[in-house]
Specification:
Length: about 220
């Protein structure tokens, strides 16, 4: 079945461009459009998309609040949110990720990256490009732990291999890339990621990445 996509952007011309790109793919279907966050909420309820391509800065309700309501505890449907931003150091990107977005992408990204990002997010993984994520975390490094703070007790519930996997998730690697890095199967990686999320009480890979940095397990710029 085709991945159902909702386009949310206050610029009609951009929505048209995204629609043309996505409808050229057999496994993607644009089911609707919205020009602001409030319209997006109505469309999500009515159309039940798999992925919402969400602009951040919009009138009436911005993309951060719309994301929070779409992915929050009262969510009505399976929609994942992929945030679009003009600037890779947009301060709202971090807030959108914390609100529940499954990742972010620059508006000027090549068409093939947009298509791949939607497929990745629809599959339940996070779209966290390592280079962009690292620049964002470097910018906010002053708000993150220095590394001298005590390690959270919850981190001790993880096995050594699960800690390794968490570090690689925080670097933005996909399951396939983690599998190659650790010389294990992709299925094994999925199992480890599932255990990490369950043990730490996290919703998804994005929250896992944020946890890894906020706990001091991973430092901005570290390999």
């Amino acid at each position: 079945m085709a991945i159902r996509v909702l386009l949310v952007d206050d610029q009609p011309l951009l929505r048209t461009g995204f629609r043309m790109i996505l409808e050229a793919e057999q496994d993607l279907a644009v089911v609707g459009e919205a020009g602001d966050g409030l319209q997006a909420l109505d469309q999500v309820r009515a159309l039940q998309p798999d992925v919402v391509l969400m602009d951040i800065r919009m009138p009436r309700m911005d993309g951060v609040e719309a994301t929070r309501q779409i992915t929050g505890p009262e969510r009505n449907g399976p929609a994942k949110v992929l945030v679009l931003t003009t600037f890779d150091l947009d301060e709202y990107v971090v807030e959108a990720l914390k609100a529940g977005a499954s990742g972010f992408l620059l508006k000027d990204a090549p068409a093939h990256e947009l298509v791949q990002a939607i497929r990745v997010v629809a599959a339940g993984e996070a779209m966290l490009a390592p280079s962009i994520t690292r620049r964002l975390l470097d910018k906010y490094a002053g708000h993150l732990p220095s590394g001298d703070e005590p390690v959270p007790d919850t981190l001790h519930t993880l096995t050594e291999r699960e800690v390794e996997v968490l570090k690689l998730v925080a670097r933005g690697l996909s399951n396939a890339e983690i599998a190659a890095d650790l010389f294990v199967s992709e299925t094994t990686v999925k199992t480890h990621v599932g255990h990490v999320l369950t043990k730490l009480g996290l919703r998804d890979r994005v929250q896992a990445a944020v946890y890894a940095y906020e706990s001091g397990l991973v430092r901005p710029g570290a390999q």
